[in-house]
Automatic annotation (TrEMBL):
Keyword Chaperone annotated: yes
Coiled-coil spans in chain: 22-112
PANTHER family the UniProt entry points to: PREFOLDIN SUBUNIT 4
Natural source organism: Trapa natans (Water chestnut)
Subunit structure: Heterohexamer of two PFD-alpha type and four PFD-beta type subunits.
Lineage: Eukaryota, Viridiplantae, Streptophyta, Embryophyta, Tracheophyta
Alphabetized CDD domains for the sequence: Prefoldin_4 (cd23165)
The protein, known as: Prefoldin subunit 4
Function field: Binds specifically to cytosolic chaperonin (c-CPN) and transfers target proteins to it. Binds to nascent polypeptide chain and promotes folding in an environment in which there are many competing pathways for nonnative proteins.
């Protein structure tokens, strides 16, 4: 009599593809979380810069372009910051949508994989 003979699972090619797909989605999910965090920080920094511009009475302010600071009229800087805030907000929205899509795909794969492998597979993070 062999012990554990009934507990051995057969992993098909399709199962392996699903496991790999879940792993890739999980990695993308973590990348998206990092990108979202960075976008939120950028948005906060832009908001802070915008608030600082409101407080200043200078007509020409220093504005960083690449690695250098240039003296730029305050109104132009305000316009640029507003444009940058809009771009960041759009990017953040796109990242949030992709994150939701990735989570939905991961949930579907979890159902499929747990249905077949039950306790033999762990798809939860510690």
């Amino acid at each position: 009599m062999q012990q554990g003979a009934g507990s051995e699972m057969v992993v098909t090619w399709e199962d392996q593809l699903n496991i790999n797909r879940f792993s890739n989605l999980n990695n993308r999910f973590h990348d998206l979380e990092d990108e979202i965090k960075a976008a939120k920080e950028r948005n906060e920094n832009l908001e802070d810069a915008s608030n600082e511009l409101i407080l200043t009475d200078e007509e020409v302010v220093r504005f960083q372009i690449g690695d250098v600071f240039a003296h730029v009229p305050r109104e132009e800087v305000e316009d640029r910051i507003e444009l940058m805030k809009e771009e960041t907000a759009k990017n953040l929205e796109k990242l949030e949508e992709e994150k939701e899509s990735v989570l939905a795909q991961m949930a579907e794969l979890k159902k499929v994989l747990y249905a077949k492998f039950k306790d033999s597979i762990n798809l939860e993070e510690d």
